[in-house]
Structures are given as C-alpha cells and as structure tokens.
Amino acid sequence: MGDHDLYDNTYYNTTGLMPMTTPDTIDTNDGTRRPARKEDFPLLVNIPIAYLDSAASTQKPATVIDGMKRFYETSYANVHRGIYDLAQQATAQYEDARGKMARFLGASTTEIVFTRSTTAGINMIARSIVRGLQPGDEMLVTAMEHHSNFVPWQQLAMQHGLVFKVVNITPDDTLDMDDLRAKITAKTKVIAVAHVSNVLGTINPIAEITRLAHERGAIVVVDGAQAVGHIPVDVKALDVDVYACSGHKMYGPEGIGVLYAKHDLLARLEPSEWGGEMVGEVTIEKSTWNELPYKFEPGTPDITQGVGLGIAVDYLVGIGMTVVRAHEEEIMMYALSRIKEISGIHVLGPADIALRSGAIAFVMDGVHPHDIAQVLSDAGVAVRAGSHCAHPLHCAKGLSASTRASIGIYTTRDDIDRFIAALRKAAELFR
Ligand SMILES: Cc1ncc(COP(=O)(O)O)c(C=O)c1O
Questions:
Q1: Which of 94, 101, 223, 424 could form a disulfide with 194, with the two C-beta atoms 3.0–4.6 Å apart?
Q2: What confidence score (pLDDT) does residue 383 get?
Q3: Would 59 be classed as within a structural domain?
C-alpha cells in the first residue's frame, strides 16, 4: 500500500467523518511498517518523540523544507521589483503561493494579505477597523480567545473610547450563544472570535455568529490559527469578513501568516502600516495606496516563507482536508477514551467530538500541570503546560493552568499510548 492509499477516503464511511478502521501504520515497499504520515516529517523520523504540541507549532514535511531550500538555491530574489528573469521567477512563485492559499480558503487572490502571523494580521486589521469607529461603539470578543484576538481589541477599545464586551462560555465549554445574542446591540461593530479554541478545542459556530453579526451591521473577525490545517475552511461559505491564520500551525514555516478579508472591506479600510510597496504615489503632501492586496503589505515580504506556505498547502490538498479531519477525529476519540482510564483527570472542552478539534487540555487532581509536562518530557512525550496565552479562559474556568496535548496529521495511536503511559506514571509519582 502506498502512503497516499493510507489516507484514501475508503477508510471512512461515506456519510460523515467517522473512521471505519484505524490506519495507524502502513506497509512500506521494503516490507516494514511505519507510523502513518510520520515518514513525511524528517524531524519525527530523526527524533523518536511523541510530538503532541502541534497547537503550538506543527512539524514540517520534507516537501516544505526541501522546497524552501530549493527556492533559495535556484529562484531567490526580492519580489515585485526587479525586471530581470530571476526576480520575475521569484515573484511568480511567491504569487503562486498566494493563489494556492486563496483557493485553499475559498477566497480571491486580492483578498489574501500575507502577514507575519495570526497575531500580526489581527493587530494590523484591528487598527485599521477601529480608525472608522466612534467612541461608544461596541466590540464583542469571547472568553475563549487566545490573547492574540483579545488583547488588541481590549487595548484599542481603551485607546478609542470603545465598549469592550466579553461573551461567556457554557459549562460544557462551548460558546454561550444566548449570551452572545444578549450582548449584540445596534452599536456592536466588531465580533472577534476563534474558529477553534487553542485550549478547549471547541469549534465555534462561525456561520451562525456571522449571520447574527450581519443582521446588526457588525463585522466578524475570525482567528483561524487552530482551524486551518485541521478542518476544512471556506471563508465564503462562513461569510466571515476577516479570517487570520499562521503558516507555522499548518505545516508551513514560521514568519508567514495570512489575513483574508472581503474585497470590499479591504478596499474601504485605510492601511495601518506604511512603507515601501504598499503605496501608489507619494508626494510631500500625501500618499495614495497600491492595489489590493499590496496596500496592506508594506516592505519586503517573507518571500521564501510565502513559497514554503504554498508548498504546505499543496501537502494538505494532496491529502484532502476531509481526510485530515477524519484522521484527527479518530486520534482524538482514541485519546479521549484512553485518558478516561486514569482517575482524577478532567478534560476541558466539549464532550461531543464533532464540536472539537486538535487540542486536548486537562487538569489532574493534585498534580500541577508543569509537573505532568516534566514527567511526560522525561518519557519522550512533548506537551505544553501553562495558560496557553488564554488567561481569561483559565480564569473563567477557575484554573491557573492546564496541560495540553495537541495533535496533527502525523499523530498515531502509538503516540497516544506513550502519552497515556507517561500520564499514569505522573499520577503514580505525585498522588
Ligand atoms: C487560537 C490562536 N490564535 C492565535 C495564535 C497566535 O498565533 P501566532 O503566534 O502564530 O501569531 C495562536 C497560537 O497559539 C492560537 O492558538
């Protein structure tokens, strides 16, 4: 069986995403069996680690690593400037990556702004958006936001006299939609919400939120950092106004992110960062702006990172996002069922697997998350402990920290077994 066969849809039933078998290992040509997808990721081949920190950053497939090296070795030059062949070739590859990202998200290329990261994209667009708001206008964020989609709005609200409201979460760790409905008013201009929570794993009902927001004339800014690369995302179907994500969380390099925004919104907004390339004409009196999306891309972009992101998109498209989701759902189900074997563990996030993706955060009675992470590390299992840049969420749940295991396309049942064995050891050691 070839490695692509492993992720063939025949492993999944046709009515949904429920896996029918557990393709954890594959037969290779030399007759050995290897963990699924791990062989695509040099680090995971070189380092025998159970890598359960994909929510922090995913590992990179060889195609991305090699493709970036090849670009530096054969095609590198600054983009959008030179007329010599090499510069034209570099520009073509960089713009090709934009096209891939646009198709991947269901957007047009003029709506795809390359940024440095989710954080950079949200900060930039937030500054542009609030320039058009009046004191007393309101913005809603949720209690489950990563600080990247919380603090920029909070700080801008303070600077501009805006009202900053926070939507609660329910006891079963979903967004409290009644609270959201109660807090939207005619003055609400922006709703900022994560597509997937980086702690709870909750998949938020973005299309429904967008519908409610648009009824009130508000725009919706979605933090997609934990969604893109894990679940299929179609920005047009969701009808979101803005959607931000990071390359390094979707098997691409760090230093590149994507900010999708509807064409009309981008056309209407004033840029909040200035410099080379984003201008049309500059005189002593005034400046005009370049066409979209370059109006929002000042300075030399992260060229090779952009090309690497395009290759990461190729990698995901080659597998198919429905298949990626099915694999992760299967691994999540397995992990959640095994974790129940250990007494005194409380898993955060919704019980319904259909409502969650990627992150499995938990607390263990009587054991500090950092102690758990240390024991796991000693056993070669990489997880994260702390508040995961989500202080308001931990505060709402009465916690100071949690331990988080997070998965990706390369995660196997074997990784989960190692995780569970190390968790048992932590429970024995500390309780
Ligand atoms: C939900 C969410 N939003 C935003 C971010 C920030 O991403 P970046 O550090 O790539 O800007 C993260 C990173 O963990 C995240 O999980």
A1: 223
A2: 98
A3: no
Q: Is 389 annotated in the active site?
A: yes
Q: So what's the pLDDT on residue 32? A: 46
Split into its structural domains, the chain has a count of 2
Percentage of the chain modeled with pLDDT above 70? 92
Answer for the pair 143, 396: CB distance below 8 angstroms, yes or no: yes
Q: Give the pLDDT score at 49.
A: 96
Under-50 pLDDT residues of the chain: 1-23, 26-29, 32-35
Q: Which of 62, 389, 396, 401 is catalytic?
A: 389
**CATH number of domain containing 272:** 3.40.640.10
Give ligand 1 pocket residues (Cβ under 6 A): 55, 117-119, 146, 148-149, 194, 198, 223, 225-226, 246
| Residue of 144, 148, 228, 254 to mutate, ligand 1, most atoms within 8 A of C-beta | 148
DSSP letter (8 states) at residue 261: E
Tell me, yes or no, whether 296 and 421 share the same domain: no
pLDDT in the model for residue 5? 32
Residues 166 and 258 in one domain: yes
Whether 159 is covered by a domain: the verdict is yes
Question: Which one of 119, 153, 193, 388 would you pick to mutate in the ligand 1 pocket, going by the greatest count of ligand atoms within 8 A of its CB?
Answer: 119
Could you give the CA distance from residue 331 to residue 322 in angstroms, rounded to a whole number?
14
What is the structure's pLDDT at 81? 87
Q: How far apart are the first and last CA of the chain?
A: 46
Q: Which domain holds residue 122?
A: 66-317
Secondary structure E strands in 83-241: 112-115, 138-142, 163-167, 188-194, 219-223
Largest CA distance in the chain: 72
Same domain, 312 and 385: no
> Which pLDDT value is given to residue 36?
53
If asked whether residues 184 and 171 sit together in one domain, one would say yes
Tell how far the Cα of 126 is from the centroid of ligand 1, in angstroms. Answer: 16
CB 224 within 8 A of CB 233: yes
